Amino acid sequence: MVKEIFVNLSVKDLKVAQDFFSKLGFGFNPDFTDERAACLVLGENIYAMLLVEEFFKGFSKKDIPDTLKTAEVINALAVESREKVDQIAEAALAAGGKFSSDPADHGWMYSRSFQDPDGHIWEVLYTDMAAFPKG
């Protein structure tokens, strides 16, 4: 089994990215943060490594997609309540994030999404398993 996850994302300006995610209430692990990378702590054993583009290129021979024009991945974060979904989404928009798609309310699942300053798509969702359709 996997014990931790580190999602690596390229960023154009590390300071802008750190400021954005700080305004959403997230912190950074200083042990894995310097002028080239910042370790965004999303939850227990869940991290996103924000890597400046030149540093990111050292890990892959592929081109870095222009995430302002294309989607590379949707980072989905499950939270404890509908209110927390709204709190994070509203904080993201207030901090300079961009609207990504309409909120989705399926009764048992509620989600909202936004793009960070680098165009990465983030979806925040709450799932009420007691209301999850059976069968």
TrEMBL record:
Keywords: Dioxygenase, Oxidoreductase. It comes from the Bacteria. GO terms for molecular function: dioxygenase activity. The keyword Disulfide bond does not apply. The keyword Oxidoreductase applies. Residues 3-127 form the VOC domain. Gene3D superfamilies: 2,3-Dihydroxybiphenyl 1,2-Dioxygenase, domain 1. InterPro entries: Glyas_Bleomycin-R_OHBP_Dase (IPR029068), Glyas_Fos-R_dOase_dom (IPR004360), VOC_core (IPR037523). PANTHER family: BLR2408 PROTEIN, BLR2520 PROTEIN. This is Glyoxalase/bleomycin resistance/extradiol dioxygenase family protein.
